[in-house]
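Case 263 in the screening queue. Each case pairs one protein sequence with one candidate compound; here the compound is iron/sulfur cluster. For every case the pipeline is the same: read the inputs, emit a complex structure as tokens, and attach any notable structural observations.

Predict complex for case 263.
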Amino acid sequence: MDVKPRLAVSSCLLGQKVRNNGEAAEFTEITHKWNGHFDLIGVCPEVGVGMGVPRPKTRLLNDGNSIRLVDSINGEDFTGRILEYAQVQADALVASGICGFVFKNDSPSCGLERVNVYRDGHTRATRDGKGMFAKIFTTLYPHIPVVDEERLKDVRQAEHFLARVHFFSLWREVGLSGWTAQTLTDFHNANKQFLLHRSPGAKRRLGRLITSGFDNSEHAETVALTYMTEAQKTLNALTQKGSIANVMEHAPGKITHNLPSVK
Ligand code: SF4
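Case 263 output:
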């Protein structure tokens, strides 16, 4: 029996009532369609560190030296607790075999991009922050595909994310038996069509990365990890419409049976 790939998702997007106002922010595309293709794992960092539901809003605060995660009403500082939780939780999620992470947008804990950051004494914010949990996760594990839920509302971006997850899940499956120069080269060659269509130059660049890694006598596991980190960075950019359609048409439905419909 096929095992469904595991996907981490901010808990509130799965319909869990964990937001500061006691509500959820269910993303029905994920809970009604993707749930048939993925093993969905909910993660709520704020509840994870013991903040109650309901609770006051948190915010990112730039105190001039660093960015802190604080209670927006009384200023209680949650930074240390979130950092510790994020490291432990990120390790556990990756060890459990997740193939991607969908983050709630705009959240000071989960947001991946353009999150409000306040300066001490200022009521206005700049939208250039990253949620504290999301930042730790992506720093520790840059080879795992991640996406902000807002992007999934665009069908092309959703397809693009699923393709990255699919590519990662194939890589992970091969790597379970241990990487060698041969298995990594074979993996790269088996996916060259995918890479060619997704990102101009990606196939050549990643091929060179394999060659130089082994020329420098790096361990195969290290080369494979560098390979996927670079691949996800490269693939993070959305490609041309034609390329995506082509890949989605030919992309093997190996991510279990078929890629889930996104609209
Ligand atoms: S955005 Fe993140 S921290 Fe906030 S409720 Fe959702 S899962 Fe919890």
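Case 263 observations:
- The chain has two domains: 6-151, 155-250.
- The longest strand covers residues 98-103.
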